[in-house]
Amino acid sequence: MDFNVKKLASDAGVFFTRAVQFTGEKFGQVEKTELDAHFENLLSRADSTKNWTEKIFRQTEVLLQPNPSTRIEEFLYEKLDRTVPSRPNNGELLGHYMQDAAKDFGPGTPYGSTLIKVGDCERRLGGAQREFLQTSAISFLAPLRNFLEGDWKTISKERRLLENRRLDLDSSKARLKKAKLAESKAACEGEAVPDFQETRPRNYVLSASASALWSEEVDKKVSFHKLHPPEYTQVDTNKTADKAQCGEVILHAAHELRVAQTEFDRQAEVTRLLLEGISSTHVNHLRCLHEFVEAQTAYYKQCYLHMQDLQKELGRFPNAFAGNPVLPMASGGSSPQGNATLPPDAASAVETDTLKIEEVQAPATGTRKAKVLYDYDAADTSELSLLADELITVYTVPGMDSDWLVGERGNQKGRVPVTYLELLS
């Protein structure tokens, strides 16, 4: 294994320098390079875009697939680059169960035939939902996921790199500043060669004996230094070397600062371009949002049309909702199956031509009491308006359709629909 010790040591040194700079900034002990206001606004806008996009994406996933187990399974299949197995959704399962139940109960019975029709409608609703989910996943969820897993990761990587470049820049500034301070301190603390001829205060007056002793001591020291000049020469050489070394340190620190400043400016420009691309991201997400709304509108419209068709089909079979057996009819009457296919308005027209309600007389036997289930407004003078929960007397007469009965309430009389009544024994 190729293990570069020098590179490892260099990386460790850079990491340590950045850590020291970062810690100093947190405690307010060192200076920090501040970004301009426009750049800060771009950063704030990018963070806000990421946070809200992530929330919208997660909640849209919940809306389209409420089952968390299914979402996790689909996520795993996607990460493994495998196709998600096709499975029926809830609507399709419900329709399948209804149709199986109709086969068991008998498709010829009112309940069985209705189960078949409702089950078929539920399966169509399930198919519409499946199409809506696929369209939404492609047109809306996929662009949001691409931003979070692609563009945003790139932006985050460049931002981390920019932060490292800034720490390097501030560390270089601190090193240059310390080098200049060290040079100034060395210049101030430098000592000259002592003047042994004049080491006392200028206004100090010695006595004769003290002056003689002082002169003798000075002569000894001067003679000693004349005999040993290399020591002073070595001191001067060391001071010159220290000054040269300080100058080299300053030059090296200045060079590092220029390099760090160049890298920081270059990285700041790259990051700025990526952050300014958030505006294009907003435009793209706006287009995807319009497509999602269109898909949702088409889905609900299709569901509404399916339910309307189902309601019309069920309206042609009102006997399916009656919980009581149909009263016997005269042999001349039409069969229930034949009349069941006629709309109520058509049946009313036939009855109006063949039967005049005011001429109908109640039979001596065969009348029954009935409870009104719902309010009913008479369509014409031949019908009787009803109020929910009231009791009326009903009976049938020859020539009347099986969907209708003659109802009496006091002196009022008229035709009433069977589906609005509960016949009492």
TrEMBL record:
What membrane topology was assigned to this protein in its record?
Peripheral membrane protein
The record, for InterPro entries, names: AH/BAR_dom_sf, BAR_dom, Endophilin_SH3RF, SH3-like_dom_sf, SH3_domain, SH3GLB_SH3
What superkingdom heads the lineage? Eukaryota
- Sorted UniProt keywords: Apoptosis, Coiled coil, Cytoplasm, Golgi apparatus, Membrane, Mitochondrion, Mitochondrion outer membrane, SH3 domain
Question: Where located?
Answer: Cytoplasm; Golgi apparatus membrane; Mitochondrion outer membrane
Q: Which Gene3D superfamilies match?
A: Arfaptin homology (AH) domain/BAR domain (1.20.1270.60), SH3 Domains (2.30.30.40)
Does this entry carry the keyword Transmembrane helix? no
Among the Pfam families in the record, one is SH3_9
Domain BAR per the UniProt entry, residue ranges: 24-323
Domain named SH3 is located at 365-425
Q: Which GO terms describe its cellular component?
A: Golgi membrane; mitochondrial outer membrane
The record's section on SMART domains has: BAR, SH3
Question: Which stretch is the leader sequence?
Answer: none
The UniProt record lists the keyword Membrane:
yes
Q: Alphabetically, which GO biological process terms does the record hold?
A: apoptotic process; membrane organization
Q: Could you say which protein family the record assigns here?
A: Belongs to the endophilin family.
Quaternary structure and interacting proteins, as annotated: Homodimer, and heterodimer with SH3GLB1.
Q: What is the designated name of this protein?
A: Endophilin-B1
| Gene name linked to the record | SH3GLB2
